[in-house]
Amino acid sequence: MGLIKWKKEFSVDIKELDNQHKKIIKILNHMFSLQGKEKTEKEIEKILGDLHEYIKEHFRTEEEYMLKHHYSGYDKQKQEHNHFIDRLCEFQKEYLKGNRVNTSILLNFVWDWFSQHILNLDKQIGTFLKEKT
Ligand SMILES: [Fe+2]
User: Fold this and answer.
1) What is the CATH number of the domain that holds 53?
2) Which in 23, 79, 88, 129 has the greatest CB count within 10 A?
3) How confident is the model at residue 132 (pLDDT cuts 50, 70, 90)?
4) Short-list 95, 91, 87, CA closest to 117
């Protein structure tokens, strides 16, 4: 996987959510740029922690947004978010157990999930709001 580029098709037409998705890409690209370089345990721990924290914050924003606008697809979104966080926790657990984190596998997993989730589910939030107004 190379550096991720933001594309117009990822836009959900909600500025705040687009900006957060862009920030997630930025963290992933940062992780990507460190691949193959000598990293200290502390650095890996920090990046994993940052990624996890920011994604949780992003999901919170998205869920609050959906609730505020009585979005009908909330349950499905919440379910996917929770499932993703569980899997991210598994990566962290492995790391804390002392197993080396394969950043390539982690990057692929996170970006595969995010790109599909944005295109399939998040974009529907924007469409819903447009139809409502
Ligand atoms: Fe979402």
Assistant:
1) 1.20.120.50
2) 88
3) confident
4) 87
